[in-house]
């Protein structure tokens, strides 16, 4: 006989244990797009206690949607080694242009990251940051359903040594810090520079260059890096996202 209350206990008990294990962690990542998942994989693989909060139900951010809902992504030569690292299969379309199934890419990134030890919690939104003496020391979270229903319910805090904004185009965590710190970001104007129009070639290079600390203990990767430091968008080419995720992980591991 299947005991339904045992199912209930199994779910609540294991979830709460996992959540408690990251109330204080090494790294918190906001956003489970390709750059956040890739960063989480390398951080967890290197033994850092890493947690990722994702607002949505599904993982992968803009990746599963491919280009205009055609579920394919393109990766350039520089990103090919990362496709191999994540066991994502691909075919060469033209020299230097590799095309992969965006659903397989999302599944492989997710699976590898979780198996490396990354704790992922979906349906949770980062709505604020913990700032102490002009340094980010964690994030403030709430259920996404609370945000959607616009209910007045107080959030809770999670502490970490570093925070990564991998929230993509809106760079939501950086914008919170910008708003509350009075324009003291490590960008040239001290504010969010803003995303520029699509130019894949330049954007792919810049997203990696712009992957760095944007405020003490707060890093940006992926499209959030170009939004924060000012760079174009790139459309459905994903090498830069993966390389950026790896780069931000390496910067934080080095700091350790
Ligand atoms: O947008 P997204 O996929 O970020 P990314 O890793 O990749 C960008 C590409 O998908 C594509 C592109 C490149 O080729 O231009 O757009 O930079 O994923 C961002 C994730 O962050 C979540 C959001 O639901 C999405 O899954 N997110 C956004 N704000 C928050 C958040 C928040 N405040 N708290 C938690 N998750």
Brief characterization of the structure:
The chain has 256 residues and is an alpha/beta fold.
Please provide a written account of the structure:
The protein is α/β, with parallel strands linked by helices and 256 residues long. The chain has a domain of 170 residues: 3-Layer(bba) Sandwich (FAD/NAD(P)-binding domain), CATH 3.50.50.60. It is 39% helix and 25% strand. The protein has nine helices and eleven strands. Strands 1, 2, 6, 7, 8, 9, 10 and 11 form an eight-stranded mixed beta sheet that branches. A three-stranded antiparallel beta sheet has the order 3-5-4. Helix 2 runs parallel beside helix 9. The longest helix is centred in the N-terminal third of the chain and has 17 residues. The N and C termini lie far apart (50 Å). The model has no long low-confidence stretch (mean pLDDT 98). Bound molecules: ligand 48F. Ligand 48F binds next to helix 2, strand 2, strand 7 and helix 8.
């Amino acid at each position: 006989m299947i005991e339904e209350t045992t199912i209930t206990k199994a779910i609540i008990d294991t979830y709460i244990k996992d959540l408690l294990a990251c109330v204080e962690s090494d790294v918190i990542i906001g956003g489970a797009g390709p750059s956040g998942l890739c960063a989480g994989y390398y951080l967890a693989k290197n033994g850092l206690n890493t947690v990722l909060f994702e607002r949505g139900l599904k993982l992968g951010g803009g990746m599963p949607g491919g280009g205009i809902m055609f579920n394919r992504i393109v990766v350039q030569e520089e990103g090919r080694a990362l496709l191999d690292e994540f066991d994502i299969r691909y075919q060469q379309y033209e020299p230097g242009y590799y095309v992969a199934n965006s659903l397989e890419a999302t599944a492989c990134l997710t699976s590898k990251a979780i198996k490396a030890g990354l704790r992922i919690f979906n349906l949770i939104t980062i709505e604020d940051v913990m700032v102490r003496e002009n340094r980010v020391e964690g994030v403030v979270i709430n259920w996404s359903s609370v945000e959607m229903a616009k209910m007045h319910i107080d959030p809770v805090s999670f502490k970490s040594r570093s925070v990564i904004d991998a929230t993509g185009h809106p760079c939501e965590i950086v914008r919170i810090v910008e708003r509350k710190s009075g324009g003291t970001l490590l960008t040239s104007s001290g504010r969010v520079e803003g995303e520029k129009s699509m130019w894949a070639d330049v954007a792919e290079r810049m997203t990696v260059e712009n992957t760095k600390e944007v405020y003490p203990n707060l890093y940006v990767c992926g499209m959030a890096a170009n939004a924060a430091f000012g760079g174009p968008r790139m459309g459905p080419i994903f090498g830069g996202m993966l390389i950026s995720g790896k780069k931000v992980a390496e910067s934080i591991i080095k700091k350790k």
